[in-house]
Design goal:
alpha/beta, 2 domains, 44% helix, binds pyridoxal-5'-phosphate
Length: 429
């Protein structure tokens, strides 16, 4: 992969650190290969057959847009996805579809949700047990689809996972195993146990030698983008000018960025990847700029539970390394403020229920676009605003990747004011 030059911004005056990447020319070949329109349509066709499927809303926040000086702010609201409060099921379900298809040697025309539910399919497949590690949402999505299809499922979580997240997975019949350590330890423990017991791992992250299933998962997420593009078209909008995507292992960000890059190439939006400062493995990978993935160790302490990942997904980096324009790492209160902004909108802008990981992108954007009291901080963050090339014509897309998936934490943040913004960074106007 030809690496772009980096410009790195880090100052004690700012709560943001960021990297601007300067490409001579972007290489779209991997995005085109991984994210063809045909595959996106196949995923969408399958998702449409799932009972309860509806296009998730794409909401516009006109008052917030005019306050921040952009043309429009769009939130693809995945909190409304099926009954699951998160986009993650789109990936896990499509991977299960592809896996069964491959095992049985069937074509897309022979596959359907109805067939997957049939006795005939189960008989042909025999006993199958699925497994995955999770930060919460992927495990819930996999438990949900395997439960619907009538298969057993084992989900591995790390010891910092909240009780409501564990309960939500168990509610769909999966067995949950708590592993000492962080998300990456849970990934390894799941793989070891699956090897011993002959379980089928459906992981959203990849590692050397394990890439096919995580690729299907990223392709499954494309349903959201196909929907979003239809929703933009119905508003007379060809594409957003900027896309902010939050990242854990980077699979969701790569799916979004790969989809838009394959579709629009040089006319793609500007892509901004946002991570928690204590789990910024993609930022570290971009910073090292040596073509290798770089991990972040430790307990990855952040309220953004879905983004608390220390090892990047190598296949996601194949896309992000070639296409992402800016990597940003932010403190937790940025996500908390994003949640509060979405839950308490201006005038008649619609309100959006967003969880910690879901609000990270909008929270990061607000911190760049609003003016803060501290002059040094304002001057410093102003550079990022310039680099983003944001103006009154900008149409900015965010994906609210989850609703209140942890209702207790949601109340603590929104009602009790947990994770307050330090006074230095309060909005001046
Ligand atoms: C709500 C939410 N948003 C974003 C992400 C990030 O996805 P990825 O790990 O693919 O980067 C996750 C991952 O679990 C998540 O749960």
């Amino acid at each position: 992969m030809k690496l772009p030059e980096n410009e790195v911004f880090s100052s004690k005056d700012s709560d943001y650190k960021w990297i601007v990447r300067k490409f001579d020319k972007k290489d779209y070949s991997v995005s085109e290969k991984m994210f063809s329109m045909d595959v996106a349509r196949t995923a969408r066709k399958f998702h449409r057959q799932i009972p309860g499927y509806k296009t998730s809303p794409l909401v516009s926040l006109p008052h917030l847009s005019s306050m921040l000086g952009v043309d429009s702010i769009w939130i693809k609201n995945e909190a409304m996805r099926l009954e699951l409060n998160s986009f993650k099921v789109m990936g896990g379900s499509f991977a299960v579809y592809r896996l069964i298809q491959k095992k049985l040697g069937l074509s897309d025309d022979e596959m359907s949700y109805e067939y997957l539910m049939s006795k005939e399919c189960k008989k042909a497949l025999g006993e199958m047990v699925f497994a995955s590690a999770t930060d919460g949402n992927h495990g819930k999505g996999l438990a949900w689809i395997t439960n619907k299809l009538g298969y057993k499922c084992n989900i591995y979580v790390h010891s910092g996972t909240s009780k409501p997240r564990i309960k939500a997975i168990e509610n769909y019949g999966a067995k949950v195993k708590v592993v000492k350590g962080n998300y990456d330890d849970a990934v390894r423990a799941c793989q070891e146990d699956a090897d011993k017991n002959g379980w089928q791992v459906v992981s959203d992250t990849s590692w050397p030698g394990y890439t096919e299933i995580p690729t299907w998962i990223m392709q499954g997420y494309n349903t959201m983008l196909l929907e979003a593009q239809e929703q933009f078209s119905s508003q007379g909008i060809v594409r957003p000018t900027h896309v902010f995507v939050q990242a854990g292992v980077g699979a969701m960000a790569a799916s979004v960025i790969g989809f838009y890059s394959a579709l629009f190439k040089e006319d793609s939006p500007k892509f901004v990847v946002v991570e928690p400062e204590n789990a910024a493995c993609l930022y570290e990978t971009a910073l090292a700029n040596d073509g290798e993935c770089h991990s972040v160790k430790g307990d990855l302490d952040t309220i953004m539970a879905g983004l608390a990942c220390g090892d990047p997904s190598p296949i996601a980096w194949e896309i992000l390394g070639r296409q992402a324009d800016i990597f940003i790492r932010v403190p937790d209160y940025i996500a908390a403020r994003g949640m509060r902004i979405l839950a308490t909108p201006i005038a008649d802008d619609p309100f959006v229920i967003s969880g910690e990981s879901g609000a990270a992108g909008l929270g990061a954007f607000y911190g760049i676009m609003s003016e803060v009291a501290d002059k040094k901080a304002q001057t410093y963050i102003g550079k990022l605003k310039e680099q983003l090339e944001i103006n009154g014509d900008s149409k900015v897309l965010f994906i609210n990747t989850e609703g209140n998936t942890d209702p207790i934490s949601f109340r603590q943040i929104i009602w009790d004011g947990m994770n307050p913004v330090p006074e230095k960074f309060w909005t001046e106007r």
